[in-house]
């Protein structure tokens, strides 16, 4: 199974098991989940299996069930609509990451949750390691470094955390490897 169509290697069963491990502590029955940067929609399908009502968005939807929307400028009708937002490798592809996080915060209900998985640079990484895409719990190399340079930027984990704090999130889980966090709207 591929997560997206952007040249990433197959995830396999291990990645799926780890993704499910991250979300297993949440009750999704009847909850509204927004999957931003959904690609082909595999995360959304997993949330649906857990009983969630899923809305998936992407700038380049991978199928007709995914709405064409920009995470930096979502529908004003969605204010406070979602219980949970999943952002799997999306924010680093936006022109204005802070704006994207502000929009995610806006569309979440009070006490809503954000699971954000992003490519990050560790404080100790030299820039030469920027050709690694860090996913939940595992690190997968890009097949083509030019694809990475053209479509995403690397930020430090502390930058994502800082942006989330500025809009009002609190971080519930520290790094779920190098790059993930579960944040709660407060």
Topology:
Blueprint: H1 12-23, E1 32-36, H2 42-49, E2 53-58, E3 67-68, E4 82-88, H3 97-107, E5 108-117, E6 120-121, E7 132-134, E8 139-141, H4 145-151, E9 155-156, H5 157-167, E10 169-173, E11 180-185
Parallel strand pairs: 1-2, 1-4, 2-3, 4-5, 6-9
Antiparallel strand pairs: 5-11, 7-8, 10-11
Helix pairs in contact: 3-5
Report on this structure.
This protein has helices at 12-23, 42-49, 97-107, 145-151, 157-167; strands spanning 32-36, 53-58, 67-68, 82-88, 108-117, 120-121, 132-134, 139-141, 155-156, 169-173, 180-185. With 186 residues, it is an alpha/beta fold. It has a single domain (12-185), classed as Vaccinia Virus protein VP39 (Rossmann fold, 3-Layer(aba) Sandwich), CATH 3.40.50. Helix 3 (97-107) packs across helix 5. The longest helix has 12 residues, at 12-23. The chain starts with 11 loop residues before the first helix and ends with a strand.
CATH superfamily: Vaccinia Virus protein VP39
Domains (count): 1
SSE run = HEHEEEHEEEEHEHEE
Biggest beta sheet attributes:
7 strands, mixed
Q: What percent of the residues sit in helical stretches (DSSP H or I)? A: 25-40%
Q: What does the average pLDDT come to?
A: 75
Q: What would you call the shape?
A: globular
Stretches where pLDDT is under 50 for at least 5 consecutive residues are 1-12, 123-150
Q: If helices are DSSP runs of H or I spanning 4 or more residues, what is the number of helices? A: 5
Q: Gyration radius, to the nearest Å?
A: 15 Å
CATH architecture: 3-Layer(aba) Sandwich
User: Biggest sheet: strands side by side, in what order?
Assistant: 3-2-1-4-5-11-10
In percent terms, what proportion of residues is strand?
25-35%
Q: Which structural category fits the helices and strands?
A: alpha/beta
Q: Tell how many strands the DSSP assignment holds.
A: 11
Q: Which fold name fills CATH's third level, the topology?
A: Rossmann fold
